[in-house]
Amino acid sequence: MASLSASTPRQSWLGDFGRELRSAVRALRRAPAFSVVVVVSLGCGLALATITLAIANAYLLRAFPYADGDRLFHVRYAPPGPYEPRGMSRIDWTALGDVIDANVTSAGDAFFLGEMSAARLVRATRASPGFMAGLGVRPILGQVFAEADYQPGGPEVALIGHAVWQSRFNSDPAIVGREFQATPENQAGGAVMVRVVGVLPPGFWFGRNSSSPIEMLLPLRVPVRTYMVRLREGVPVAYAEQRLTAAARQVGSDFRPGWKGVQLDGVRDRYVAEMRPLLFGMNAATGLVFALVCTNVAILFLLRTLRRQREIAVRLALGAGMAHVLRMLLAEAVLLGGASLALGVALTVGALRGLGPVIEARLGKPPPGGSAALNVDLNVVLMIGGVGVLVVLALALLPLLAPRRWQLADVLRRAGLGATDGPAMRRLRTGLIAFEVAGAFVLLVGGGLMLRSVWNLVSTDLGFEAEKVVRASVHLPSTYREPAAQAQFFQRLAERLAADTPAASVGSSFPPYYESHKRTFEADAAAEMPHEMGGLIVGAGYFATHGIALRQGREFTLGDRLDAEPVAIVSESLARQLWPEGGALGRRVRGVQVSEPDAPLGPWRTVVGVVRDVRQTYGDSDLRDVYYPFLQAPTRFGNVQLRIDRPGAVSPTRLAEVVAALEPRVRVGEPTLIADEDQQFARARFMLALIGGFGGFATLLALLGIYGVTAYAVQQREREVAIRIAVGATESAIVRLFLREGGLVIGAGVGLGIGGALAAGRVLESQVHGVRTLDVATLAVVGGFLALCGAGAIWWPVRRAATGNIQAVLKAE
User: Fold this and answer.
1) Which stretch of DSSP H or E encloses residue 704?
2) pLDDT recorded at residue 100
3) Using one digit for the tens of pLDDT, what is the confidence trace for 694-727?
C-alpha cells in the first residue's frame, strides 16, 4: 500500500503532463508562424553546432586510432629546414628500452599484381618491427610478422589490406598461407612469390600515408631512420629527448652549429597543428551563431508569453496553480525542442555525408583515422543532447521572468490603459537585442576581414597564370636509375606532346605553390653575392606554359641536355642584384653545397635568359631565383604541365595514352588545375563562405529580433501613437521617437561588438593575408551597415502604425 500511494502522485503528474502535451499541440497549431520559425531556427542552429562539433571531435578530440596514441611522438632530429645530422639510422634503440616502448620506421614500395599487360599497381609499405608494436596492428586474420621475416634475403611475406582481400581474393577465409605472384615496381629481380601471413583490419589508417589506405604491408629489411616513437608509460618527454640526443651524438656526424638536439612532437598535435586555428575559428563562429539563435528564440518566447498574459491570468483566476502554468510552458518547449532536435540531427547526417569530402579538401587532409571518423559518434550525441536539454529547460523557464502580476483584474486594467510590460522585462529584451547586434557585428567583421584577405590574394600578382595550367605527376620506375635514361624518357615524352600542342612543359620538379628549395650560389664578377636564393628545375616550355614573361634571351629547349653546355635562367630581381649595370646574358652562376664543404662544386652555368619575377607562394618575398633545365638535372620524379586555354591542348586521357605508349610501368598522377593546389586561397575562400554566411544569418536574426520587439512595442503603444498624431505629431516625428529608442540599443550592440571583433581578429590573424586584424575601415563599414539595416527594421512597423486608422484605435480605446 505504501508503494502504491507513493506512485500515485507521480502517475498523476505524468498524466497531467500528457494532457498538457495534447493541449500544447493545439496551442502551437493556432500559432503556426511562431512554431515554424522556432523549429527551423533551432533546428538549423543545432545542425550547425553539431556539424562543427563533429569536425572538431574527429580532428582534435577523438582518441588517436592507435594503441596508446597519447604516447606516440614524432622524432625531429633538426628544426624544419636545416639538414639533419648524418647517421641517425644507426641509433641503438635496444639501449633505450627503458625509455622507448617502440620505435616506428617504414618505407614506401609498390608492386604490380597480375600479368604485366594488365597489371594493377598496388601501393605497399615496408614496416619495421616497431611499426607493428607501436601502432598496435592487429590483423583480423593471421598474425603479425615473425622476427625471421625481417631477415634480409628471406622470402617475401605480406599483410594484405582489407579492400585487396575482398576485391582480389574474394574475401577468402583461408587466405593465410596462400601465395601470389607480384612484380616489384623497380623490376630489379623480376616477379616474386609473396606469402600472405594476415589481413589488415578494415579502415586501417596510417597518417604518414593518409591519402589512401595501405594495400599491402611488408617487413622492412634495411636500416632506415626512426621517425616515430612510443614512450613508455610515465616517461617525461623532456627526459626522453635528453636520452635520444645523447644517443644521436654517439652515432651521428655533421652536427651543425647551434644544433639543439632531438625533439619530440605529439603525433596528433603535429598532424592537426596547421588546422587548429581554422577549426577553433569555425567552432567559435558556430557557437556564437547558435547563441544568437537561442537569443532570438528566447525573444520570441518572451513576446508570446506577454501576449498570453490574459490567457494565463484567466487560468490562474479559475484555480490553476503555478505548477499547471509551468507544465503548460514546459510541454510547449518540449514539443518545439524535440522537433528542432530531430530536424537538426537529420540536417547534420545529410550534411556530413554530402559535405564530408568537401570539408576534408578544404582542411587539406582527412581526420585521424580516415574519412570514416567524420561522423556523429556518442561523444557528439551526448554533448549536443545536453545542450538541447538545457535549451528546452531555458525556454520553458524564461517566460516565468515575466511580471508576476497575473491577477485577472490587474491584467485587464493594464490592457485597458494600454500600458506596456514592466521595466525589468524591457531591460531584458533590450539586452537580448543588443547581444544579437553585437554577435552579428562580430561575425560580419570577421567576414569583412576574410573578404579583404581573399581580395588581397586575388590581387596579388604571382607572376604566373595558375588558373590556365593543368599538372600531372610522372613517376618513373626504379629501373631508370641513370640520369641519362631519365632524361631520355622525359625528352621522348616532350617530343610526343609537342606534336599535339606547343603549350606543354615536361619534367619540371617543383610546380608553383611548393616552396622553392633555397640554395646557395656564386656568380662570376658579381657586385654582391647573396647567401641563398630560390633554385628551381623546370622543363622546356615552362615559362610559356605558365605565362611567365621572358625579359631577355631565350627559354630552355629540348636541346639543353646532359651533353650540352650547362645553362641557367635568372629572375629580374636576381639579375639586377648580381649585375646592376645590366648584361646578365652570358654571365655564369653555379651552386655551392654549404652543408658539405668537401663536396664538388656544381658546374658553371651560362645565363641564357632573364624572366619576370615569380612568387612561388603568396608569402614568397624572395624573388631571386635561378632556373635549371630539367634535362640537365633529371630525376625519376617529374611533372607534365599543360596550358588548357589554347586550342589543341592535350587532354588528361591523351596524356595517359602517350605515357603508356612510351612506358606502361610509369605512374601518372591525377591531372589537377594548378590553381586548385593553392591551399591558402582555398582555406581563405572556405573561411569567407563560412563566416560570411554565419554573419548574414546572424544579421537576419538580429533584424528579426529588432523588428519583432519594435512591432510589439508599437502594438502596446498604439493608443499613445494615436493620441500624438491626433494632437498634430507628424509621421516623421513618430518614427524619430522610436528610432531614438531603438538606436540606443543598436549603438550599445555595436559598441559591445567592437570588443568581440578585436578578439575575433586575433583568432583570424593566421588566416588573413595583407589585412590588419584591427581594420578601422571594416569596423566602420560593418557598423554603418548594421545601423542602416536596424533603422529599416524599426522604421517599417512604426510607419505602418503611424499611417494606420487612428480613429479606429481611439474608438476602440
Assistant:
1) helix 679-716
2) 92
3) 778 888 878 877 877 777 777 667 677 777 777 7
CA angle 375, 380, 386 (to 5 degrees): 155
Question: Rounded mean pLDDT of the chain?
Answer: 77
| 3-class DSSP assignment, residue 518 | strand
Strand, helix or coil for residue 11:
helix
- Give the chain's largest Cα–Cα span: 110
- Count CB neighbours of 540 within 10 A: 25
Which one-letter amino acid corresponds to residue 771? V
* All residues at 6 or more sequence positions from 574 whose CB lies less than 8 Å from its CB, including other chains: 530, 533, 623, 624, 625, 626
Amino acid at position 195, single letter? R
Considering the entire predicted model, what is its pTM?
0.70
CA–CA separation, 261 and 589 (whole Å): 35
Q: In what order do the strands lie in the sheet with 100-104?
A: 100-104, 228-231, 72-76, 263-266
Question: Could you tell me which residues are beta bridge partners of residue 495?
Answer: none
Cell of residue 589, nine digits? 652562376
- The amino acid that residue 489 corresponds to is F
**φ and ψ at 220, to 5 degrees?**
-90, 125
Give the closest residue to 232 by CA, choosing from 113, 93, 343: 93
CA distances from residue 755 to 166, 277, 448, 780 in whole angstroms, order as listed = 57, 20, 16, 14
Taking only the tens place, the pLDDT of each residue in 63-95 is: 777 777 888 899 988 876 556 788 888 888 889
Look-up: residue for cell 599543360? Answer: 642
Among residues 88, 109, 89, 91, which one has the least CA distance to residue 100? 91
Q: How far apart are CA 97 and CA 103, in angstroms?
A: 10
**pLDDT tens digits, one per residue of 309-341:** 666 666 656 656 666 667 777 777 788 888 888
Residue 662 contacts residue 462 (beta carbons within 8 Å):
no
